[in-house]
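Before relying on records like the one below, remember that each one covers exactly one chain. Contacts with other chains, cofactors or solvent are not represented anywhere in the record.
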Amino acid sequence: MLSQTLHSLFLKREGFGEGAEPLIQLYKILLKAPGVYGARFSGAGFRGCCVAFVDAEKAEEATSYVKDEYEKAQPEFAKKLR
């Protein structure tokens, strides 16, 4: 359900400009990460944030996956996060 709430935002994105590309990429990476049950972003017009529900036993694996994949997707932005 958490992930499904973003579906309408993606449908409206063209008309309303919902979501910044780096945040959308992070969201998509989170959905593919091991142990992630769901994710969504919020406040993308104001720098935004992503939230994900992750299986506690897979949290380290999910963190590593997200970090590696996001650095590939957004290398310049990821450098600023270090």
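The longest strand covers residues 36-42.
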